Amino acid sequence: MQRPDWAPDDIDVERPSVARMYDYYLGGSHNFAADRVAARAMVEAVPDAPLMAQANRAFLRRVVQYLGDSGIRQFLDIGSGIPTVGNVHEIAQRAAPDARVVYIDVDPVAVAHSQEILAGNRNAAVVREDLRRPAAILRHPEVTRLIDFSQPVAVMVVAVLHFIPHADHPEETLRTLRAALAPGSHLVLSQAGEDGRRRAEQVEAERVYRRTDNPLCIRSRAELTAFFDGFTLVDPGVVWVPQWRPETPESAEDAERAGFLGGVGRLDG
Amino acid sequence: MGEPVTPGASCPGTFARAWAKAVSGTSYLPMTQAQLEEMLQRLTHRLAAALRAEPFDPRVGHQVGAELVAAHIASAEGLGRTVEVIQLRLLRDLGLVGDDISDRLARLLATVTTGYARALRDRTLDEQESIRRAAMVARVQAERALRDSESRFRHQATHDPLTDLPNRTLFTDRLAAAIAVPGRGADRVGVCFLDLDRFKVVNDSLGHQVGDALLVQVAQRLRRALGDHLVARLGGDEFVILVERTGGTDDVVEAAEAALAAVSEPALVDGHELSVTASVGIVERPVAGTTPGELMRAADSTLHWAKAAGGARWALFDPARHRTELARYALSAAIPAALDRGEFFLDYQPLTSLRDGTLLGVEALVRWRHPELGVLSPGSFIGLAEETGLIVRLGGWVLAEACREAESWAAGGGPAPFVSVNLAVRQVNRPDLVQEVRGLLAQTGLPPERLQLEITESTMMSAGAEDPVRALRALNDLGVRIAIDDFGTGYSNLAYLRDLPVTELKMAGEFVTGLRAPQVDPASRTDERILASLVSLAHALDLTVTAEGVETADQADLLRAIGCDAGQGWHFGRPAPAARILEQIR
């Protein structure tokens, strides 16, 4: 007997959602009181949190632009969250209207909201699935409808891995995804990065996120680099996100304040 | 208010760059720095035009404020920095001077902030509404998913996963409802139990996948052929059909025939053309006074009648036959307890020498002193015991009891009589038969040559395998006598007489019954000739011959004349307790 994989009780606006907290950091109003309480506690602990979210969002924008310029026309954005300004499909389809994008998120409200945003967009879809079930993602009918895995695909796992603890074996998840990809595909990763100077802040941040369904798991540059196993890192490798192909030299200054490490790997033939 | 004069050079680019720098980082901007400067330069031109316009139009400020929000420069900090940079630099960078220029700037700033605040408020409200709607939609979707899964669960709980036919649960519910709350004119109900004939052969020879595919086809055909009647799969190759509101047995027979016809169409499964038949048990009766369980059991046992009659047919429930079967079942179920309580005992029938009238041996015959039914002869329970396998325990008891009693029979001058005990197929097939007999002989002290084991021809035929033959040889080597019982009624296969350590043939009573005076019945001559040939054949093989069923002195005379060694039957004595038989020889 197969139980439904989500129950109405899962949709609890009294419980902070990491997707809606992220929206709050980005200045959005797609959030509820509980989200704002948690997000404010986070900002109190880590005053740079909004800046970090912005930097990560800017990283996403530059990466999608880069991938579009490299000829990638298929995007699988896992952990897409609340669709807000500068979504992947907006950037990708501005560059190439036939670009196909499938968003994956585990948060049912984020998914419902994305459905509304994407209504009428034949080349974009959203699927409710969990990053920890990569096989289910890969065989989902909406995914197989839009994504041709015999052609290069960009798999984006942006600002999500810090919600996947070691016990859930993220490296195996990424290996499963990699096995489905054709040469020329790309893997994009970013996550909260370990920074010795901010140890106290990070402990506080972990405390805040324990209130959500997704405790925080901060990783080092080496750990994030290891996740690119099987891929060739694109220059400049795994860096603080503002340092990843900055548009102006000054935008890369003080990069570790952005708190997120990120990188892009290419699957060679 | 005069035209503002422009003393210095106008540098909107410089201003736009400063503005971009001021607002960058105040919120996420989905554009490059260059794109941002370009946009702000456009807004700078509009602000400059507004400052110069006559009359002053505040709507420009509203629009600029709204455009900033639309471009996602939408935060409190963004607004603060914008006000600051306009206040500090706009007039200077654009080289604007004039009497009322500061007034105009103040009014313009007021409209920009108003437009900005309005737009931000609208946007906040829109986003709040949209996220609430998303939460609601998510909840509705989750509820629908839950409902779907519940209905899927209900379907799974009441349907067979292979064929998607209703399962036993649903069938029983519908049958119970038909009985408990019959509609008007629905006071009778019928049930057909259907089972494919030799379905196991399909599974065993073609594999379970083909078997399953066949079941799916059969299910589809039954559903099609039976229209409104509920067809369910009980499991394996068992199906059941509910016929409600019957007028009599004909209605159910009609359904059964439709089902049999549907099943018997050749089926193409996985490249194999399969011809299957089915058997159907039919029960049809008034709903009053019956229960679903009773109906199902009755239909099930009726199905077995159809099977026993060769399959590919239906059988109709017969209450008298059912009662007999139930009684037989009750009897067989009572055997173990009866053994424990010592309700069985042995009678013995003499095996008398035709040469000199001495008692050669006795055949042990088991009796059951049933507490309610009185003394039962073997005919009423041995068959049951053989079917159920209880014959092993019962036969073991008979063998042990016979050995125990026989040991004490003192010889009245001549050699003491041997005891002859029947062995069933299952006993012969047991690997520890030799050990059991050897143990009994040792335990009771009965000399091996005083034990005879009677085996029927069919036992020999079905035993066939090597192990029972080896066991019989081992027993014979011990000195135990082996007799073939009822010889001449089975296949009378002479080959095993060559291979087996047989001591004696017991001629079936049928041949003896036919022995009458030849002038009365010419057929009697034939029986006599057969008997004579068998006796001479047996003697040629060094076997002794005992004739069973000897009832008259004439028969005894004829058998003696033929050369038969011994006789058994009413003429020589009926079965009786050992003591009575032994009295005769003293």
Automatic annotation (TrEMBL), chain A:
Q: Which CDD domains match?
A: AdoMet_MTases (cd02440)
The protein's matches in Pfam families, at most eight in alphabetical order, are given as:
Methyltransf_19
Question: GO terms for molecular function, please?
Answer: methyltransferase activity
| Record's keyword terms, sorted | Methyltransferase, Transferase
The record's annotation in Gene3D superfamilies points to: Vaccinia Virus protein VP39 (3.40.50.150)
> What's an example GO BP annotation here?
methylation
Cited InterPro entries: SAM-dependent_MTases_sf (IPR029063), SAM_dep_MeTrfase_SAV2177_type (IPR006764)
Q: Which SUPFAM superfamilies match?
A: S-adenosyl-L-methionine-dependent methyltransferases (SSF53335)
Q: Say yes or no: keyword Nucleus present.
A: no
Q: What is this protein called?
A: O-Methyltransferase involved in polyketide biosynthesis
UniProtKB/TrEMBL annotation, chain B:
Entries under Pfam families matching the protein: EAL, GGDEF
Q: Where is the GGDEF domain?
A: 187-319
Annotated signal sequence is none
Taxonomy, superkingdom: Bacteria
Domain EAL, first and last residues per copy: 328-586
Which InterPro entries did the record assign? Answer: Biofilm_reg_signaling (IPR052155), EAL_dom (IPR001633), EAL_sf (IPR035919), GGDEF_dom (IPR000160), Nucleotide_cyclase (IPR029787), Rev_trsase/Diguanyl_cyclase (IPR043128)
Instruction: Name the PANTHER family for this protein.
Output: BIOFILM ARCHITECTURE MAINTENANCE PROTEIN MBAA, DIGUANYLATE CYCLASE DGCP
Q: What is this protein called?
A: Diguanylate cyclase/phosphodiesterase
